[in-house]
Specification:
Four copies of one chain form a homotetramer. By secondary structure, the first copy, chain A, is of the alpha/beta class. Chain A folds into two domains: 62 residues, Phospho-2-dehydro-3-deoxyheptonate aldolase, domain 1 (Alpha-Beta Plaits, 2-Layer Sandwich), CATH 3.30.70; 260 residues, Alpha-Beta Barrel (TIM Barrel). In chain A, 33% of the residues lie in helices and 18% in strands. The first copy, chain A, contains eleven helices and 14 strands. In chain A, the strands form three sheets. In chain A, strands 7-8-9-10-11-12-13-14 form an eight-stranded parallel barrel, surrounded by five helices. The first copy, chain A, has a four-stranded antiparallel β-sheet with strand order 2-3-1-4. In chain A, strands 5-6 form a two-stranded antiparallel ribbon. In chain A, strand 7, helix 3 and strand 8 form a beta-alpha-beta unit. In chain A, helix 6 packs across helix 7. The longest helix of chain A has 17 residues. The two termini of chain A are 44 Å apart. At the A-B interface, helix 2, helix 6 and helix 7 of A face helix 2, helix 6 and helix 7 of B.
Chain lengths: 338, 338, 338, 338
């Protein structure tokens, strides 16, 4: 930790910082420059809060030199982590496209969706039984019954299922239904109690980025899960809030190489929620794979115009098929397969 | 709802929209302009999802003409709602300053804090027993024991207490300890299950704005609480995420007049979390009251340099006293008292 | 300047940084911590570009400890700078409200506007003769003729005039017409050639904040003017771009105390362009003065509904009069007059 | 144009809107819904300002149904526009990588740079002679002399040159030196006088996106150039300002498909200024091409560690070579060549 003092501070204020550091077991290296005095804290900087030092008289700024994340950091585990999801490997050389409808509606809809997803060549399926909706008056999901319909539909094609958990009280139900991958949605990225609970299971977790979460906050949210013992974490970039109104969210494609550098965990992208329009999905999907994403979460509905939610962002079955063909070529261009 | 068609669409696509509207019980008013055809949906537009129409062929854009919020809307209740919190009125002519430490630490700290808060002339007290922290390795709050210390300290001065609820499973404990005002934090603004549960109680709820929530999303989050039957909702602006790095969050002072226009519910401001620095708190507090806020949530610690969290943003006891004097003058300048 | 090395770097990389610093005349203080090596550069850090060091092998981050701005910095001139504009003092104890129409339209419109501005008690007038419009097909201003109409109208009430300069080639015309205050608009905040040219004059300059300029970039833009010899600079906060769509821009009220701390120059606020709606202007104006602004730029049109541009954000004459009454009370509440 | 009235307005207010529309030559279609009255304006909506209507009593919102851009719109010219730059085609099937140093430093530096750019297989070269720098105390470019060094270096390899114009007074010098492509930088995207002047030439213009410009504002800035008669416009996405601090700007990859839909003009991407770090350039470059960009502006310096500006974002010669190989594979995967 580096403490930058205001210009013109006296010895008393410098000593105050040194004393406070010592209180927390840290040594100091005081460097009196021409313009400013800078104090280096030597030792384990996690022992002391940055804000505590910032509150001391004469302190202008405090800068951490260590990354706050540990288990999820690349330095903790040099190799890429490959997560095994019912035999499907995520994070390795093979790119995984996880497709399916926004929400689970009926058994026939899910049966049809599963057929199309499998036919297109995808190995995992997505679908929401519990839906986080902006309005309390909108359709809130088919719930537990939806979980069952989803499981029944996907089983026929041996596809592991991905579905969102919103309420900590539903975790046992998810485990009872043997959901293969638990998705933590954007609005719950910093629902710390929920993160702690899924951290106690061994289920793979897809952690979506918060609406305007920094990459560092996102890594720290994953650290909450990891600290509980569950290291099967998959980051999912889904666009962030911006000033642009043409599309729903701004896909942060740069987050892909940044995460691949900072963490050993897999990174996937949700191009459907990012752009919010089906016609943008192919280009955003190609960009994501070209930038190094390990997979995608894509919305596909058997008949998009009848979808119960987010109808305008779902691909139709034929579009998904074509997307898969085009993504395979991109994957190959960067030495991966799909 | 207004449906704007792409230029050059044919009758088939226009009919498709009209048919879909009819399916949901809505009539249509088709207006064929020089450049574009525009379809007005006549009837209750909440019956149909905007996205469903957007997914239809030939539709360029869909615009809602009704506000999505109902109970919280000013049109639902023309007069300002005044909430009674143990005899203290929030939302009326008197401005309320709710002060106290970021986190409950020890009984002596809380006793001292309560004394200073009351002495400064505040009528309510704040303090966090459960803390949402970015890092799993940071201090997470004193928990239930903290609630008790807080209650004991505030009771002596007959001050109602405000404290944050993060986990839906703790709600009963909050009710058992008779917490006067439940605070829903920034990270939980769209934790819909939590909102639904506090909506079933009759406790006043302070709903902080999400990190980058639009005012409309914020109103809809409040609608989740209101829809459950609890109309005792207080909005708290606490700054939003921005590109500026000089301070922690950008206080959205414009949100104050906007909320006063859109909703009948009280609006308060948290200048401490907004700026993130104690030295900015007086100016931001004055701006908030001058812009029409009904109150403030201010951090005060008996000895800020020893605070266990957010030490750099807490006022000291003397600073709080001086702030109250200056805020009283601002309140009087706009015809209110404090 | 502090150079933070990546973890695990060797002596060769550390020596590379030390050598590069020496090349630019700076000494080094190498501190080898448990986790990382940190190098402090001792000497005048403005001699070397941060990016140059960041490009060296093994460098993780480079942090400046000196502020990049000099003449505009508070440390350069401890007292508040008070600018004399034709006898009207800006930056002192008296708050100045500069009012007038968005654009100069006709002589009668300007004559009437001037009358109302003076009657309301304002001492300076604003009006645009050259208008930066998003569309090339929108009204672009009345130009030089507009300058003359403006001058004629304001002279009668001895009010100095404020008007925007967009094109460096028009500077001589502005000087010929003896414009009292040159306004540099949001879109030109980093038009460095324009800044350099107004820096060579002695005319007071209102420098509006760029659409999403950081406070530091804004101060550096002012430094361009100051470096040319013109220290008569007035900062004008006018809202920044954000994700919120309810209003036009997000007024950054926090920028006021921040600027008052960082610079000795006056700070004013434009509540009309910030909110973009006349009905918000009173609340935003009060917030700005309460937060410490030295003045305001407010749009007033004799008949807002007929304004040639930005009609929805202009106050009417009576509204301006009432605003002045209310702002006088706020100014007095913080010990200033108006 | 659609005018949405506030709920509960009377006939007088509706008539006011209809009258105002008639004044500007537009007819009205009044639709009285259950909740609100909506007025459709029939005729050429560009004749009237949205703000003028918004200022009328009883008007809640005004929505345009026509795109404000004309010449640059895809509807104006269905086919992709291919721009011929000294024989090199931009906007067609072949992807163009334009490489070179951030700034022109010396003749040997430029000679070497040109050699490496040509050797890597690029057909155009970039380099800045006039540099927009945040600080007035930073290196401001080698100016006219730089233009000459650049021309000399590039000529040997028959590469057209791209360089930035900041000051309208330098346009003649640019034309005298026969600069092949004029670049308008981020900070000048809405320097309307500069846009008008380059609009009077026939030189191809690269128009970089403003720091936080919406896509619509960007298209309108291009419309300023096009309205002057110059249709040789190339959009360059270079990242926008965001809350994320890990990298310099957030590359808006979604802008690529959006622009390809809205305009017939070529779209390129500057991955170097977007990320601000050389190590991110390959991934961002691949993403851009995969998303459909027609080319890239990439920074390459013969010896990045000695660059006079932005040293940390320049690729070295070998890195450029490798990037070209990898981009060729991506281009082929989507059916283009490079």
């Amino acid at each position: 930790m580096i403490i930058i003092m205001s210009s013109g501070v006296g010895d008393e204020q410098i000593d105050g910082v040194v004393r406070k550091l010592k209180e927390f077991g840290l040594d100091s290296n005081v460097s009196r420059g021409v313009e400013r005095t800078v104090i280096g804290a030597i030792g384990d900087e996690t022992k002391i809060d940055k804000e505590l030092l910032q509150a001391l008289p004469g302190v202008e700024d405090v800068i951490r030199v260590m990354k706050p994340y540990k288990i999820v950091a690349r330095s903790y585990h040099k190799e890429d982590t490959v997560i095994d999801i019912g035999g499907v490997k995520l994070g390795g050389n093979q790119v995984q496209i996880i497709a399916g409808p926004c929400s689970v509606e009926t058994q026939p809809q899910m049966d049809e969706a599963a057929k199309y997803v499998a036919e297109a060549g995808c190995r995992m399926m997505r679908g929401g039984a519990f839906k986080p909706r902006t309005s309390p008056y909108s359709f809130q999901g088919t719930g537990v019954e939806g979980l069952e319909m989803f499981r029944t539909a996907a089983e026929k094609y041996h596809m592991p299922i991905v579905t969102e958990l919103m309420d900590v009280r539903m975790l046992d139900t998810f485990l009872d239904h043997d959901v293969d991958v638990i998705q933590i949605g954007t609005r719950n990225m910093q629902n710390f109690d929920l993160l702690k609970e899924v951290g106690r299971t061994h289920k793979p977790v897809i952690l979506k980025r918060g609406m305007s979460a920094t990459i560092s906050e996102w890594l720290m949210a994953a650290e909450y899960i990891a600290a509980g013992g569950n290291h099967n974490i998959i980051f999912c970039e889904r666009g962030v809030r911006s000033f642009e109104t043409y599309y729903r969210n701004m896909l942060d494609v740069t987050a892909i190489p940044v995460l691949k550098k900072e963490t050993h965990l897999p990174v996937i992208v949700d191009p459907s929620h990012a752009g919010g329009k089906a016609w943008m999905v192919p280009q955003l999907s190609r960009a994501a794979i070209a930038a190094g994403a390990d997979g995608l979460l894509v919305e596909m509905h058997p008949t998009p115009c009848d979808a119960w939610c987010d109808a305008d962002q779902a691909l139709g079955p034929q579009e998904l098929k074509e997307l898969m063909v085009s993504l395979r070529l991109i994957a190959q261009a960067i030495g991966r397969d799909l």
